[in-house]
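Mods, move this if it's the wrong board.
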Amino acid sequence: MITALILTILKFDRATIENDYLLSNNYRKKLAQKRLHLANNLHFLYPKMDLKVIEKLSWVENDYLKAAFLEINKKYGSIDVYIHQVLGIPENKRNEYILKFTY
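Not the wrong board. Structure tokens:
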């Protein structure tokens, strides 16, 4: 999520942000597989543990990112307002970041 916000601050297009977000699954693969393996093997200790929930929470999905940005838009009106008012990044500073980190 933090990377998605950084890319948004840098005015990357939504498709790039979503693709980058989903790449997180590649880096989480070993951790997710280990978590699922442990949950499956320890299920007898925690019979109320729902393995499907654990599996679902082990991966990132595009819907999670969309929901986060939807909430920001609902609460603040737009991502730009959130960046300016909540994160405290004025437009001139944002433009400096864009020049520094994208060119």
